[in-house]
Amino acid sequence: QEQVVESGGGLVRPGGSLRLSCTASGSITNIYSIGWHRQAPGQQRDLVASIDGARSPIYVDSVKDRFTISADYTKKTAYLQMNNLKPEDTAVYYCFVRTLVISNIQTYWGQGTQVTVSS
């Protein structure tokens, strides 16, 4: 079964840190991109960061210099290190794994993990 499992969310004070993890099941192959979107209440789901094997990571401007994405493709796992968290980072974070087979792109989503930044 194809599955993406996330972990690492929680409650943290402003200025604190969290690390999210995302692992694709063994049946997911030909991964070319992994990343996270986030969705705050009443807002649309937006890209936070993504990485693929050939290019530099991509970050939304609001998290540059605070968040770092990395990936271990042998383990089909990605990490999002989030430092200096701010209340506006509060959202549900959804990991995605994108595969490419010839010209067919397929996206798999994790179940989402809540990140709450509050004093």
Descriptive account of the structure:
With 119 residues, the chain is mainly β. It has strands at residues 4-7, 10-12, 18-24, 31-39, 46-51, 58-59, 67-72, 77-82, 91-101, 104-109, 113-117. It contains no helices and eleven strands. Strands 2, 4, 5, 6, 9, 10 and 11 form a seven-stranded mixed β-sheet that branches. Strands 1-3-8-7 form a four-stranded antiparallel β-sheet, with no helix packed on it. It is globular.
Based on the model shown, name its key terms.
119 residues; mainly beta; seven-stranded mixed beta sheet; four-stranded antiparallel beta sheet; globular
Kindly name the structural category.
mainly beta
Which runs of at least 5 residues are low in confidence (pLDDT < 50)?
none
CA distance, first residue to last residue: 40 Å
Helical amount: under 10%
Q: What is the residue-averaged pLDDT?
A: 94
| Oligomer type | single chain
Rg, rounded, reads 14 Å
Secondary structure layout:
Elements (H helix, E strand, L loop, with lengths): L3 E4 L2 E3 L5 E7 L6 E9 L6 E6 L6 E2 L7 E6 L4 E6 L8 E11 L2 E6 L3 E5 L2
Parallel strand pairs: 2-11
Antiparallel strand pairs: 1-3, 3-8, 4-5, 4-9, 5-6, 7-8, 9-10, 9-11
Care to give the gist of this entry?
This protein is mostly beta strands and 119 residues long. It has strands at residues 4-7, 10-12, 18-24, 31-39, 46-51, 58-59, 67-72, 77-82, 91-101, 104-109, 113-117. Helix content is 0%, strand content 55%.
